[in-house]
Amino acid sequence: MSEETIQYVDGAIEGVEIRYLKTFSDSRGWLIEIFRNDELAEDRWPVMTYISSTLPGVARGPHEHVDQTDGFAFIGPSNFKLYLWDTRKDSPTYGRRYVEVLGEVKPAAVWIPPGVVHAYRNVGDIPGLVLNAPNRLYAGKGKKEPVDEIRHEEAVPPRFVLD
């Protein structure tokens, strides 16, 4: 069965780590711990971080990486519908799709391994922020290497549908 014709079934995906985050609030505001090196395998430790703002209704992805693990943090404001598809033919969860709403209603950090197609959409009414802390540098050292990214947004017919 080719990936173009696979019918994905919903379920957990091997190698994806989701950590629901706790908000520590006091009279000054709040704090959320996203990454601790004693709680994450060393091969997933971030080597860079960036933050993006996504407008309501806008999606980012679907795309995947050959070597990179993405470490997203969805903490708000707003909420995001996260979509994951396991396209790794050697994975015990090949052919699975995982969907969950994360962000202000349910803060979470998510580590997505190579070969897992991923996308998210802002399903809230306000712009939302997403932090990413991947374990590889974008475009390599000095931004002089090919970008580790396989984009699927323009595929015809669409292979990965965001419902």
TrEMBL record:
Function: Catalyzes the epimerization of the C3' and C5'positions of dTDP-6-deoxy-D-xylo-4-hexulose, forming dTDP-6-deoxy-L-lyxo-4-hexulose.
Name assigned to this protein: dTDP-4-dehydrorhamnose 3,5-epimerase
EC numbers: 5.1.3.13
PANTHER family in alphabetical order: DTDP-6-DEOXY-D-GLUCOSE-3,5 EPIMERASE (PTHR21047), THYMIDINE DIPHOSPHO-4-KETO-RHAMNOSE 3,5-EPIMERASE (PTHR21047:SF2)
Organism: Paludisphaera mucosa
Domain of life, per lineage: Bacteria
Catalytic activity as recorded in UniProt: dTDP-4-dehydro-6-deoxy-alpha-D-glucose = dTDP-4-dehydro-beta-L-rhamnose
A Pfam family recorded for this sequence: dTDP_sugar_isom
Top enzyme class: isomerase
